[in-house]
Amino acid sequence: MDQNKRPIILDCDPGTDDAICLFMLLGDDRFDIKGITPVCGNKPLSFCERNALQLCELTGREDIPVLKGASQSLFCGERTAGNVHGAGGLGSVTLPDPHKQVEDQYAWDFIYQQAVACKGELEIVAIGPLTNVAGALLKYPNLKDYVKRISIMGGAKGLGNWTAAAEFNIWADPHAAKIVFASGIPMAMMGLDICFKAYVTADDLVRIRAAGGPVAEVAAELIGERVGYAEKSGRPGGILCDAVTAAYVMDESVVQTVDVHVDVETRGILTEGKTVITYKHTEDRHFPPNTKMGEDVDRPRFIDLIVNSLTNLNR
Amino acid sequence: MSKKVLFDCDTGGDDACAVALAVASPELEVLGITTCMGNQPIENTTQNTLELVRYLKADIPVARGSQNPLVRQRWVGNPEGHRLPIPDLSEEVGPLQEKSAVEFMVDVLRSSEEKVTLIPLAPLTNIAKLMLQHPDLVREKVEEIVLMGGGMYFGNTTGAAELNFYADPEAAQAVFSFGLPVAMCGLDVCTNAYITPADNDSWKGFDNPCAKAFYSITHHSLNGGWGEFPGERTLIFDTVPVIYLLKPELFTAVKADIQIECASDLCDGMSVCDARTGLHQTDRPHIHTVVLDVDRQGYVDAVRELLKNA
Q: What is the average pLDDT value for chain B, to the nearest integer?
């Protein structure tokens, strides 16, 4: 292990914005990416596995192991986002068939093994449903003592997207999210509210493409679809939810956070999968904070982080 | 021509301030006040309402409403009632209507030639009963519903729910699913419509009972009676719907479909405001209005203007 690099596991469901998050982390040489643990989410698991392998090969990082993740939520079966991320999960981008296969090890065993090996320094960046991470916590209760932080894309303070109250990643496995937030591991949550502030404009897209090389080309195509959709719906720019979590992990000062208590509703008819945010206390109960929740983002610097990483990947 | 309104209150200091503003306004004619349980038991909210009406020298009939929620066998308020913090308030009061709140509202609606605006400031138990028992009359005679309750982005009783809806989630759901548009003045806007000591001092000298009641209650609140920021600011939630009714141009709002969660561990009583557009928009129409923010200075000026000319 390179002692000077921050060890990270990326738990993801690629996913177009997952790809951008991966590029950002790979383009920052302060990180040692121990492995990628795909999970059923934006697409069924087999799609997410394949996309993860392809993205590693695209970036020349076939050395990063891709593990065997959960093919369905803990208790709610397979919940996916349909065709929101296109038929294959990477929008209109088609990549060559991967050479490598998924490792013959489960995500939850790998997470624990790496956490112990990293002696408390491991960070988990989780940008899909939290099934793999919760699975690790259920199997290895003392995992909580070995993980430095879990930074997630998920949840919302206000309006949801998949339902009026719930954001997709949390809705797709509410019980897993509840377990992870209650784990005692320091949490950082980049929810929909901040993700909508981290939009990417057509001008930003020009800079992203200009980073050059095959990775930036794929990134520009993936982001371009989002920008195009935003233009059609009258929004200021495309939304890349998972990229915000990468930005936070790369440079915390890009994101303003507030300490809150987060719990997850698992049963409500209208609110299943809602992240219930409590600011310190309600009228009659104290809620100790368990999460740093992203409130605002320095958008120009967020774009800089994307461009810098892509530029590094073209070296 | 003045707008005819019916209040439903769990009086309560902020309910009292709302009624005082309505009485002060030449644009509103208060046809009656029905009472409901809320923060306090029904005996206290009813007695407080009667004392208030007498103090304001307002000839407004008061009818007693529900102590129990529509469905649930539980009440979440504080069993210790308290009187309104107004000096020289008399415990001697005028008569209470013999009819129940719902029967009284039916009479008022039937006998009114014009449509009536409902201003519910309490759990929605009485209003839900009225709608469930007399749907045709409500559709024919209710102009609009402007209420205090809920919150799009946060709760107060729980992380997700505001007290009025949490106290009777099924009643709130009955009201929002009835089909009439509701303007929801929830915690989002009410938190921004705070009153400072300087604001309150600016109407201290007005020599009329509406201004005196408003000043005394707000003074009490500012000095630690309730609220999170004693000495700095206080939140008088229930006055927001009254000012919204009179000066909607001061407010920002979004259209939404609103439903109330009634079957959840953490979110019971949450007002689920669905304002999604585009990709994830549902086919449920956005008939309700979520009032989100206010031009606070304009709001305070409006309050002062009303109290000055009461």
A: 95
Q: What is the pLDDT of residue A72?
A: 97
A162 touches chain B (CB under 8 A): yes
Which pLDDT score, from 0 to 100, does residue A1 have? 54
B contact test, residue of A276, A284, A287, A291 with most B CBs within 10 A: A276
Q: Is residue A110 less than 8 Å (CB to CB) from chain B?
A: no
Per residue in B257-301, pLDDT tens? Answer: 999 999 999 999 999 999 998 888 899 999 999 999 999 999 999
Residue A2, both tokens: 């390179």
Q: 3-state DSSP call for residue A84? A: coil
Among A158, A267, A282, beta carbon nearest to B153: A158
What global pTM score does this model have?
0.90
Q: How far is B54 from chain A (nearest CA, A)?
A: 32
CATH code for the part of the protein at B3-308: 3.90.245.10
| A-B Cβ pairs (cutoff 8 Å, strict) | 92
B277 in A contact zone (CB under 8 Å): yes
Convert the pLDDT of each residue in B111-159 to its tens digit.
999 999 999 999 999 999 999 999 999 999 999 999 999 999 999 999 9
User: Domain A6-313 - what CATH class?
Assistant: alpha beta
Contacts of B244 (CB under 8 A, 6+ apart): B146, B183, B185, B189, B250, B251, B291
Residue A239 pLDDT greater than 70, yes or no: yes
Residue type, B57: K
Q: Which residues contact A146 (CB under 8 A, 6 or more apart)?
A: A112, A115, A116, A118, A119, A120, A122
Q: What span, in angstroms and rounded, lies between the C-alpha atoms of A243 and A21?
A: 4
Percent of chain A with pLDDT over 90: 93
DSSP three-state, residue B246: helix
- Is the Cβ–Cβ distance between A70 and A46 less than 8 Å? no
**Residue contact A277–B154, C-beta within 8 A:** yes
Q: What whole-number distance in Å separates Cα of residue B167 and Cα of residue A283?
A: 14
Is A233 in CB contact (< 8 Å) with chain B?
A: yes
Chain mean pLDDT for chain A: 96
Residue of A175, A196, A270 to mutate, interface with B, max B Cβ within 10 Å = A270
Minimum-distance CB partner of A165 among B156, B272, B278: B272
